[in-house]
Amino acid sequence: MTARLQLAGVSKAYPGVVANDDISLSVAGGEIHAILGENGAGKSTLMKIIYGVTTPDAGEIRYDGKLLEAHSPGQSRALGIEMVYQHFSLFETVSVAENVALCLEGRLDLPALRLRIRETAARYGLAVDPDRIVMDLSMGERQQLEILRCLMRDPRLLILDEPTSVLSPQAVEQLFTVLRRIAAEGCSIIYISHKLDEVRALCHAATVLRGGRVTGEVDPRQATSHELAVMMVGSDLPIPERPASTPSATPRLSLRGLSGRPLGLAGRRLQDISLDLFGGEVVGIAGISGNGQSELAACLSGEALCPAGQVLLGETPVGQMRPDARRRAGLAYVPEERLGRGAVPGQSLTANTVLTGYASGLVRHGMVRFAEARRRASAVIERFSVKADGPGALASSLSGGNLQKFILGRELALAPDVLVVAQPTWGVDVGAAAFIRQRLIDLSRDGAAVLVFSEELDELIEICDRIHVLSEGQLSEAVPREEATKDRLGALMTGGELGPVAEPAE
Amino acid sequence: MSELAISIFTGTLIAATPLLLAALGELVVEKSGVLNLGIEGMMLIGAAAGFLVAVQGGGLLPAFAVAALAGAVAAALFGVLTLLFLTNQYAAGLALAIFGSGVSATLGVGFGSQPIEALAPLNLGPLADLPLLGPLLFRFDIMVYLGLALVPVTWWWLNRSRAGLVLRVVGEAPGNAHALGYNVLRIRFLAILWGGALAGLAGGYLSLAYTAIWVENMTAGRGWIALSLVVFATWRPFRVLAGAVLFGGVTILQLHGQILGLPVPSEALSAAPYVATILVLVVISQNRARMALDVPLSLGKPFRARD
To answer: What residue ranges are annotated as transmembrane (chain B) (predicted)?
Structure first.
């Protein structure tokens, strides 16, 4: 049987870096094939080559046995190759049906299209309502819509780039059910990911990339996570060290019946949130974005003000203090959005260091001490092995993972009493993520209180001493680390009912 | 109903027409994500060019055609600058407004005192002779009907046609539209031309029908009012109509007020339509949640196709 897609010796070099080096792989009809690798392993370049966005320097691509030469994305779509990007390409202000219509040729006949959408959605078990406005959809629903858009064009090869990065565990499981159904109908799927357990639960085959080369071709259902990790990272994954610690006698940060206003259109009202955070512990806030996460983070950082007594730093009521006053009082904050809120894109790393370090000796008599700031930026770059062109590099020139390391390092250099971090390892590769997690634990063991917002339950279970779930603006009881499982947290995230969360078989 | 009431009603619609035309054009431009601040300039160019044709005996229909064409040519200039050369849209729009004022003044030199025959009401035969309804509804010139008709047509085109849908998403997320294979620059350029043509037509209406003479800077800020109408009407055609009618209505009322000799300075009365329109539109655009769906999210931001 001819393979649906076959790559032989595909190479692609950019100035200074070989993105793909002699890559060969083969995907059969109806197969779910994982491309596993860290950020920068060459996954994205390879997908662009397959989809026709870039042309390889060498090697050949065969689709159903026919050689593809210098094909464009348009030709790919005509051949039945569809791609779902990591960052959604949906239009927010128009309806689901209109979004689908924009991808199809021919006359605009919305009533007929609505019917077709309902049929297709029912066939694959997608929960997509054609009349809703995309702005009102959750991340999981948007993901399903992206896939539905592709399905409406009867694809024969579907490429998914990190499709689960913003999904809840339940939504991931739903997605897998849909993908299995699609594959069962004969469509091949290329599944790009760095998440081992997902690949093992879903995929029939896996090609592991590292540094642009194939380092393994395995059946992920047979391989262990350990074997896959070694192929992907090149060494064993460090397991974070969590020395025992004694919480401080009095809380460092307290919330007393906090009920912040909803931010933005899809905002949530916080429902009477109370929490005590002690020095020496890492506390996690689990839950999917949009359940009050941004509101709670804003109330903590000072971007949103609330009645003074609802937020306490130590004994000091800070609810009415602005972010700079709270920073002076010992709070550090790493927002989820790195460019624009965590760092100013068009400014150097040195200037970005001054941005939060003004109270710690970088400003004297109203003048910035640039030499000192430069020294501190360099120290952060070195200590956190940030890949950047020195302290003068613009924040926007760093990759997401490197910028995150820099921002976190910058805040840790302030030796804060309380650190609030949102999504510490989003888009950061496995090795760097492990490093960041270890730093967070270390900070807490040095006596600071650390609060981590994350959608990744594995991460929270790994680093936190206790975990709360924030769902629909309400904070759950604390789940101690020993009792925290994905099942239990996932159930709290969806309001108590147990979703069909399947643990990957060991 | 008294003669006065009828004349206030008809005068209102006539005064609203140039605003309506210009604002409906700008609405389409802005929905595509482009902010053209130069409406005032395009209106003036249209007014002068149209008048030039009419005063030299070219006939009114060709005069309107030339007015629209001149507006579109001026807009094309803006389009090339902002879309191709990525000039800042705000700066280019302001420049167009000033440029239009200068060009039109130059074109109109020497024609200032020459009157032309104004655009006559459309002959609707027996309809115009109906009691009450005749003088109220059926004695307007064609441009008034055109302006009114464009309201539902613009709404329908934007919200029901495929081309309108594409235009809206180009205004929301041009990068995504480009990725789907839509030609963002071409769509935006066509929208800019359409906006220019309607602004030119609006200017032509002032010089060919409303006053039937050429006066330098005769638009008197109507281009700016049209611009703010679009924003305050939250990019919805029927609200633009409401705003234009309001402006027209207060314009006519204050004229009557001046004639009756109200004890208010005439400058204050002349300012009334501008103040009233902006006040009312500010109040109705307070519902932010609903507005978010109507705002073209990429408004004013340049788009450059990568690779």
So the answer is: 6-25, 37-55, 61-86, 93-116, 136-158, 189-213, 219-235, 240-262, 268-284
Number of domains in chain B: 1
Angle at the Cα of B286 (from B281 to B290), degrees rounded to 5?
110
Contact A91/B166, CB-based, under 8 Å? no
Chain A residues close to B306, C-beta within 8 Å: none
Interface of B with A in 260-299 (CB under 8 A): 289, 292-294, 297
What is the number of CB-based contacts under 8 A between chain A and chain B? 45
> pLDDT by residue (tens digit) across A92-103?
889 999 999 998
Last-in-domain residue among A358, A393, A412: A412
Cβ pair B16, B244 in contact under 8 A: yes
Dihedral of alpha carbons B253, B258, B259, B260, sign: positive
Q: Do A157 and A122 meet the contact criterion of CB atoms below 8 Å apart? A: no
Sign of CA dihedral A63, A30, A96, A340: negative
Nearest by Cα to A288 from A150, A136, A453: A453
Identify whether A194 is part of a domain: yes
- Say if A164 falls within a structural domain: yes
B172–A93: do the CB atoms touch at under 8 Å?
yes
CB contact under 8 A, B293 and A74: no
Chain B residues with beta carbon closer than 8 angstroms to that of A107? 162
Domain membership flag for residue B35: yes
CA B32 to chain centre: 17
Whole domain around residue A135: which residue ranges? 5-233
Instruction: Say whether B161 and A108 touch across the interface (CB within 8 A).
Output: yes
Q: What is the pLDDT of residues B231-277, one digit of tens each?
A: 888 899 999 999 899 888 888 888 888 888 778 887 887 788 778 87
Name the residue of chain A whose CA is nearest to B164's CA. Answer: A108
Rg (alpha carbons) of chain B, rounded to whole number: 19
| Domain CATH number, residue A79 | 3.40.50.300
Q: What is the DSSP letter of A220?
A: T
User: Same structural domain for residues A355 and A221?
Assistant: no
Does the residue A335 lie in any domain? no
A270 and A247 within one domain? yes
Contact B172 A108 (CB under 8 A): no
Question: A98–B165: do the CB atoms touch at under 8 Å?
Answer: yes
Boundaries of domain holding B50: 3-294
Residues of chain A with pLDDT under 70: 1, 166, 237, 264-266, 495-506
| ipTM of the complex in this document | 0.82
Domain count, chain A: 3
Compare CB distances from A91 to B160, B161, B173 and report the shortest one's residue: B173
The domain that contains B17 carries what CATH number?
A: 1.10.3470
> In this predicted structure, what is the pLDDT of residue A506?
35
> Would residue A337 count as lying in a domain?
no
Whether residues A286 and A400 share a domain: the answer is no
Of A200, A237, A233, A206, the residue nearest A38 (C-alpha): A233
State the nearest Cα–Cα gap between B162 and chain A, in angstroms.
Answer: 5
Interchain proximity B172–A265, CB inside 8 Å: no
- Residue A305 sits in the same domain as residue A353: no
How many angstroms from the chain centroid is the CA of residue B195? 8
CA B129, B135, B141, B145 dihedral sign is negative
| Non-local CB neighbours of A201 within 8 Å, separated by 6+ positions | A176, A502, A504, A505
